Amino acid sequence: MASQLIRIWSKPSENIVVHTPAYDGFYKIIQENKRGLLPCPLEKQGNNWVCDMEKLEVLLSQPETKILLLCNPHNPTGKVWSHSELKTMSVLCERYNVNVISDEIHMDITLGGTKHIPWSKVATTHWALMTSASKSFNIPALTGAYGFINDNHSREAYSHQLTQCDGLSSPAILAVSAYIAAYREGHIWLDELRNYLSNNLNYVAQVLNAAFPQLNWQPPQATYLAWIDLRDLNIDDDKLQQILIHEEKVAIMPGKIYGEAGKGFLRFNAGCPRSKVELGIQKLISALGKLC
């Protein structure tokens, strides 16, 4: 969906602003559509992630900037954007006539009472909100996603690209049925899922910090992803990956996959049975111990 909108709302060589570190798929669709990527690095302040709005404004104000590609909640940091942050971004996008594509696939997986605010609540310029039930209800194999596009012209252009350029005319009926059932009947599942994920992430924090207190890692506000800052350990990212893969026989995503701002980090997936989380963290601690 994002790739289609990028082609509708921008031209080759025009720019797209992305908060970094960023989901690796963002880099791919921007590059393959021959657009320029302007990174806006999030700043780690304690256990929080903050956007420097003045730096963001500089990027949005550039004449060639046409789109803000927002991740809400943010992957990989797990940040949930506050209403004031979203409102500030909306004001800036309106000021510089920048359209917004908001990827909200993790919208249902907020933790610790944190509230997700959709971009549609603050939007003023042309915008599109994209999401899916695949994360919330574990149904990616059924395929499918859905979105909201606020203006008729962009919706018609999007539909034209799908049907006339890509030859797609209708979604899979099984996926449609599954989505309807999930959102109508799946609230008990979703509540239990959030509790399970929260317990998994709390376990990661407890065990990892016991082994390496200097990390002081804390669970995110959203997602099932542990974005672990290893920079205080002063270890070599590539050597760590070699040990994890070849000695510990476990794969944990290196932070550099998510851009320059991800160097020194790992993205540990806690969206799995507790037994796998326990094994994965034990393997990570063992690997870190060999380098520290």
TrEMBL record:
Keyword terms: Lyase, Pyridoxal phosphate
Family, as annotated: Belongs to the class-II pyridoxal-phosphate-dependent aminotransferase family. MalY/PatB cystathionine beta-lyase subfamily.
Cofactor(s) this protein requires: pyridoxal 5'-phosphate
GO terms of molecular function: cysteine-S-conjugate beta-lyase activity; pyridoxal phosphate binding
Domain called Aminotransferase class I/classII large: residue spans: 3-283
Source organism: Photorhabdus luminescens (Xenorhabdus luminescens)
Pfam families: Aminotran_1_2
Record's protein name: cysteine-S-conjugate beta-lyase
Organism taxonomic ancestry: Bacteria, Pseudomonadati, Pseudomonadota, Gammaproteobacteria, Enterobacterales
EC number: 4.4.1.13
